[in-house]
Amino acid sequence: MRSSAVGQKVADDAQRLRIAVRTLEDALLSVRLFPENGGLYAFLASTDKDDHYLSLVARLPRSFPRSGKFGDEVVRRVEFRVEPDEKVRVNNLVLRQQPILLEGDVEEAQNPLILVRDISEFTLEFWGERSRDWEEEWLSTNQLPAKIRFSIALDTDQGRKGTGMRVTRTVPIFTQAMPRGVQRLPPPGQNPVLPTLSPGVGRPSNAPGG
After folding, report:
1. How far out from the chain centre does Cα 207 lie?
2. What is the per-residue pLDDT for 38?
3. Whole-prediction pTM value?
4. Closest to 144 (Cα-Cα) out of 49, 38, 23
5. Three-state SS string across 1-61, please?
6. Lowest mean pLDDT, pick from 30-44, 97-111, 127-141, 185-199
7. Widest CA span of the chain, in angstroms?
8. Residue 142 domain-assigned (yes or no)
């Protein structure tokens, strides 16, 4: 019976870990950034030992956890944060989310979704275009890294060595920040400058009615 219970716990932990990894990947692959509205769209991350989190705005798929709660508000700020459990002395990886144009949700703040319990590690690394290497800090809140590498580790037997699980993923960021010139309104009487489409697709017209 003890062997069966241990096996079931390991299977449950592995499933939670898979869900957490998938949730992080979905958020990173659908990230959005408008530098002109940096207060709403800032890309924030902290690898500080006492405050470990990743916060971003994304256009989330319907399959994302708790999407049914927010209805058609698919563009939301999501935050992954390591927090201590109030009942036991372990750390959990929790998820909070909020539509960017609505006020803060008290229930979401007080009762976040626990993705993984009893994690021993949650690391973030960002690919530096200048250093051409992985960096532990990302200070450019109005820019997106080319790719992000994250790791989640947890212990399956109360911290005993050799009994932990670890998953590491590298996620390329395909989204590009919207240029500031496209976001700003043109002066009165001047047509907006629209981005050029790819060859063969056609070009937008700046003429009235175009």
Report:
1. 39
2. 82
3. 0.79
4. 38
5. CHHHHHHHHHHHHHHHHHHHHHHHHHHHHCEECCHHHHHHHCCEEEEECCEEEEEEEEECC
6. 185-199
7. 78
8. yes
Rounded CA separation 173/3 (Å):
42
Amino acid at 2: R
Give 84-121 pLDDT, tens digit per residue. 987 888 899 999 999 998 887 888 989 999 999 889 89
Count helices and strands (H / E) in the chain. Answer: 5, 10
Residue 92 DSSP class: E
Task: Please report whether residue 169 resides in a domain.
Answer: yes
CA distance 118 to 16: 11
Amino acid at 6: V
Q: Does some domain include residue 37? A: yes
101 or 147, which is more confident? 147
Q: How many domains does the chain have?
A: 1
